[in-house]
Amino acid sequence: MKCGSQSCFRLTLSSFLQNFVVPAPGNAPQRSSYAAVFQSFTGKFLFKQGQQVHAHMVIRGVHPDAFVAAKMVAMYASSGDLCSASWIYRSIDEPSRLLFNSTIRALSLFRFSEDALVVYVKMHSLNCRGDHFTYPFVLKSVADLELDFMGKCTHGLCVKDGWVFYMYVSASLVDMYAKCGVMGDARKMFDEISVKDIASWNAMISGYMRDGTIDFARSLFDQMPQKNIFSWTSMISGYTQNGLGDEALQLFDEISREESEVKPNWVTIMSILPACGSSSALERGRKIHSFAREKGLDSHPSVLTALIGMYAKCGSLNDARHCFDRLDRKSLVAWNAMITAYSSHGLGKDAVEMFEFMVRDGVSPDGITFTGLLSGCSHSGLVDIGLTYFDSMDSIYKLEKEHEHYACVVDLLGRAGRLVEAYELISKMPMQPGASVWGSLLASSRSHHNLEIAELAAEKLFILEPECSGNYAILSNMYAEANMWEEVNNLRALQKSNNVKKTPGCSWIEINGIPHLFHGGDASYALMENIQLLLKEISDKIKAAGYVPNTCFSLHDVSEEEKEHSLATHSEKLAVAFGLLNTPSGTVIRITKNLRICGDCHTVMKFVSNLYNREIILRDLNRFHHFKEGSCSCADYW
Hints:
Blueprint: H1 5-21, H2 31-41, H3 47-59, H4 66-78, H5 82-90, H6 97-109, H7 113-125, H8 135-145, H9 148-161, H10 167-179, H11 183-192, H12 198-211, H13 214-223, H14 229-241, H15 245-256, H16 266-278, H17 282-294, H18 301-313, H19 317-326, H20 332-344, H21 348-360, H22 367-380, H23 383-395, H24 403-415, H25 419-427, H26 435-447, H27 451-464, H28 469-481, H29 485-497, E1 506-511, E2 514-519, H30 528-544, H31 560-568, H32 571-582, E3 589-593, H33 599-611, E4 616-619, E5 624-628, E6 631-632
Parallel strand pairs: 3-4
Antiparallel strand pairs: 1-2, 1-3, 4-5, 5-6
Helix pairs in contact: 2-3, 2-4, 4-5, 4-6, 5-6, 6-7, 6-8, 7-8, 8-9, 8-10, 9-10, 10-11, 10-12, 11-12, 12-13, 12-14, 13-14, 14-15, 14-16, 15-16, 16-17, 16-18, 18-19, 18-20, 19-20, 20-21, 20-22, 21-22, 22-23, 22-24, 23-24, 24-25, 24-26, 25-26, 26-27, 26-28, 27-28, 28-29, 30-32
């Protein structure tokens, strides 16, 4: 009779267990016999059978010794039952090295790192020395907790006991030092290994990427004699996290080719998508989504969650919601991604609704949830609702209010013109207010023309972030609006003495997968003549429709004509003109700007969306603006 290997295994096991559980008279199983049975269950998803054999032991009054207990711990751990595994370990009065190893391994693999180290300390206190099975999992727990001092002590014991050059121990030492951020010691250990396995190379690459020493990571990657998917994914993830999306995408293209021996997995897809989101590369993100779908990777929950973030940051909220709805079981991370998506698009009511759905679904919010929720309330003017949620953090959800939550509420109150309340909240904060708090107050002060509070906020910001030119610009413009030219000159002198350089405004637009970058006032672009002609046409049309340039957003010590010309060449206006010239009628124009859009450009975008029948989605430093038929999704509350 022919059968599959798994079926044959179960038939043989069933026959064996029948004789084991119901033995012939006078042939009761010995205690040591149970060890082989539990070992045969380990990793085979035979949890129920393991419980039955354990019950059989209890009924027969057989108490496991350290050897049998070690096999039981391994069986229960492989089935995910850490409680039973830990209970068995604790029931043994004299644990053996094998039992200690099984328990440490189980706890370490399930990220109960502190518990794993407690067991290891007990093992050491009983003068039971570790071996090449002990130390890799001890070092993994040390790395998870970033306890570099304990890692050094463990390293010393590895050297003393002669295990340091066993492949898995040495690789674990490299990984431990790298994850603890001690790259000097990691590199020293790495260089001492005569035969380096791929795990050691990968640990060094990941460590260098976390440390921000990208060139070292790339150098090692290029030197690797053999690369696996973890090597490629570590580089792609590292580039993305360090803001080098183009480099990440180049590597992804290389590994995605048909001739590539190593193929992307779901972790690779999850790692590359933020690179598309950061640069608003929607077309590129859609191609990666299509690739993932073809390979059967787009149904993984982590990939769907990453797709939510990518589509939201690229301005395609409908696609983000579609990916969210595809999730069968929605994790807290997924709920947070969707709440943050609605908030960044200024849809505070939708963010609130999503939060209430999440709570009803039995998912408890965390600090990230409330940052997104409060931000959404702020951008939508939901002041009272936002304050209620802020109060509920500690009273209902038992969450500690962090600095970013106070920053959101200061912004919430400030945008509504309640500047005194915002300032009073800052004075009552249980921690030192940082730049984001004072920055929110400064921006609100400008919107509501409160120079007194603006000066208070700016004074703090000049100390907290002296290199930020935007703070100087806001206060300088407020002084100029009030004709306080002496203060303007003093502020410019202070900025110059502190060597603070102005951050140039720039915008970019993606056409056929290719990004096009524009700087304010830049006339060097290849098609600038056509862009300027269209801008002149736009200016004439929108003025005829009632547009009046708002020159308060331009320099204050030049003529009105110069102010108007300066406004006309803001980077987002250059980008929208380029989009009109290079996309078919009816195509959505998507623009990203590195700074906050100014009020005049915001007005122009509304006129253009109506007169040219185009939807314009503009992402600035703070949020998204959806312009359509002459209005903006922010309802001019931004």
